[in-house]
Amino acid sequence: MAVNHGAGEEPEDELLPCGQSLMELWEDPAGPRVPPAGHPEECPHCAAALAELHALEEFVTRSRASEAAAPRRELSVSTVMDIVRMELRPGRTLPLGEPDEDAWIVEAAAAKVFRAAVDALPEVTAGSCRIAPVGAGGRHPAGRGPVRVRIEVVAGMTWTVPRLAEAVRDAVARAAGERLGLEVLAVDVVVMDLVEPAGGNGRTPW
Amino acid sequence: MSGHSLDRHDDALLAVRAGEGDEDAFEVLVRRHGPVLLRLAEQLLGGPAEAEDAVQEALVSAWRRLPEFRGEAAFGSWMYRIVTNRCLNVLRARRPLTPLEAVAEPAAPEPQASPERAAETGAAVHALRDALGGLSPEQRACWVLREFHDLSYEDIARAVGISPQAVRGRIFRARRALTEAMAAWR
Question: What domain of life does the UniProt record list for this protein's source (chain A) (predicted)?
Answer without folding.
Answer: Bacteria
